[in-house]
Amino acid sequence: MSEPRPLHRLFGLSWMDFFQGTDITVETEVDLSTKQQFIDLVLIRTGQRPIPRPLPDGFEDLAAFNLVTFKSYQETLDSWALLELIGHYVNYRKQFSPSMQDLLPASDFRLFAVCARYPTNLAQLVTLTALREGVFEIQVLTLRIRLIVVHQLPEEEQNAMLHLFSASEGLLQYGREHYRPHSQESSTLLYQLFRVYSEDKTMSEKLKEYVRQSIDELLKSLPVEERLKGLSVEEVIRGLPPETLEALTRQLKGNDSPPKPN
């Protein structure tokens, strides 16, 4: 993977918002090699203060370093994805240890795989041990990988952020209605997320209609400068109501008129 997809970037940004003001540092799209290979998310515990909000199901026991791979509804979590995650763990542990002879202890690391849909093909190759609804564990040699299936997580407050990355209308709606932002940029984040959904040709019309309505509502909550960001002058003018455009035209004509003689 040479370039992270938009949903992966937004997935990382949502965690940055979630851990705003805590002792968890969030690093997104971490490049671990000379040939770009990204790990979607690294959650680094920088202090011992309790996290002041419930964590999504499956993430309760964070270690010092937590490596997360993410597969959206557009992708499949397969055996190759798990091998990549393990490879990232090996590389990350070597890079951030004092030396190759003094590696950080394995207990300082946790591995997580988040996917929108249940990985049916993967379940035929490895044992997925169910821990609770939507949360599984995979044992690979001495490593344990926590697997979180978004579409199976219960509709509970702590899971609202992850439900924003569901392709299920009900779960997506629950996520939007129950997501509790922790930074001022959250409305912009949600707007960008729903923009990605609205441009997906594989989405059902029913879901697209919900997304369109959500975008309209989110736009009303965005500051003017955020709504105009990225738009050309022509696009801004096209979006103005006729009466506003006429008033501006009259004002400009008045400013261009030669001064009246005394």
How is the topology of this model organized?
Blueprint: H1 6-18, E1 24-31, E2 38-45, E3 65-71, H2 79-96, E4 109-115, H3 120-123, E5 129-132, E6 135-140, E7 143-149, H4 160-163, H5 169-178, H6 186-198, H7 205-221, H8 224-228, H9 233-238, H10 242-256
Parallel strand pairs: 3-4, 4-7
Antiparallel strand pairs: 1-2, 2-3, 5-6, 6-7
Helix pairs in contact: 1-6, 6-7
Could you describe the 3D structure shown?
The protein is α/β, with parallel strands linked by helices and 262 residues long. The protein has two domains: 6-170, no CATH class; 230-254. The chain is 40% helix and 18% strand. It has ten helices and seven strands. The protein has helices at 6-18, 79-96, 120-123, 160-163, 169-178, 186-198, 205-221, 224-228, 233-238, 242-256; strands spanning 24-31, 38-45, 65-71, 109-115, 129-132, 135-140, 143-149. α1 (6-18) runs antiparallel to α6 (186-198) and α6 packs antiparallel against α7 (205-221). The protein is globular, with a radius of gyration of 23 Å. The chain starts with 5 loop residues before the first helix and ends in a 6-residue tail after the last helix.
